[in-house]
Amino acid sequence: MAETAxxxxxxxxxxxxxxxxxxxxxxALGIVANMVxxxxxxxxxxxxxxxxxxxxxxxxxSDAASSVITIIGTKLASKPADKKxxxxxxxxxxxxxxxxGLIILYxxxxxxxxxxxxxxxxTEPEYGWTSMAILASAVVVKVAMGLYVKKTGEKVKSESLVxxxxxxxxxxxxxxxxxxxxxxxxxxxISAEAYLGALxxxxxxxAGIETLKDAISAILGQRVDADTARSLKQxxxxxxxxxxxxxxxxxxxxxxxxxxxxxxxxSDETTIAEVDKLQWKxxxxxxxxxxxxxSAIGVYPSNMGDSSAGEIKRKIKEHLEQYPEVLxxxxxxxxxxxxxxxxxxxxxFDAKDRIGLFNKLKNxxxxxxxxxxxxxxxxxxxxxx
Length: 385
Known about the structure:
Elements: H1 2-48, H2 51-77, H3 92-120, H4 129-156, H5 159-188, H6 193-220, H7 226-237, E1 244-252, E2 258-267, H8 272-290, E3 293-302, H9 307-320, E4 326-335, E5 340-347, H10 354-368, E6 373-379
Parallel strand pairs: 2-3, 5-6
Antiparallel strand pairs: 1-2, 4-5
Helix pairs in contact: 1-2, 1-4, 2-3, 2-5, 2-6, 3-5, 3-6, 4-5, 5-6
């Protein structure tokens, strides 16, 4: 067992090191590409007296800064767990994504101010076909770079890389619009680039807000995707002796770093020793298959050989079918010695007056079985499927 644990730990460290090197390498490539593009665009913008092209170069500089933040954030996040931070430092990646969002916002605000100045005091640009060819080449590079960074970020589950990739793709659209404005001026003499600069600024601001929104959501703690939750439940349910899996909770401590807990339903004839063995098997199976640590595994007893408990459950579920807001009823147990009935209910967060609906349903269930001392608890809709 010790050998297996050691091998698993080494494999995990190797995977983290590989992930870190991919992120750093991709970010470094982004820095070089954006610095080169920023230099070309800045030169073209100054020579042609184009505010739109100059702002586009500033946008590339902000992208380069974002890549630097991504590298720093990844390095800090890869630090191993310690006494003060037993769950590791993975959430630093979400903080770095937030910083990137702030950088993008700053670039958007600055460019918007400059665009408004140009609208108030317009100047006539001077474009050349050589500069147009360079800008067109830059668009191709930016699209390829954006797709590569975004795809790599999704593969290694890096919020910062995904944000940088999306930003690069937005920039490519901005560059296309800049070229279109230049061609419009060359062919018609109509200068719309100051207004285009304002539009570019708004797009940059939008990208910054979305990046911040995603990063803040991850830091606050968001619902785990359904596929991950479903896969984990299937692994737990696959352990012999488990009759049901409920109340799955997964706490995110960084990309691919989860600590989970769950309730399992077992026969009420199961001994404490058997429950302990079952919990051990579940923890081992989950870690080996998903790399997730089970921090706690609670137990719901299930009535065995008692038809009246089954009939009660059937009647309650039949009654709840008229309420689509009720996602799940579980943990139902009939104790005939104490003449008590207990269960947990999960109600959708989107339900109108969720607490009011729960109280209504609880009273209805209590009224259905007056002979029992009935207790109904409201569970959170965290990973209910």
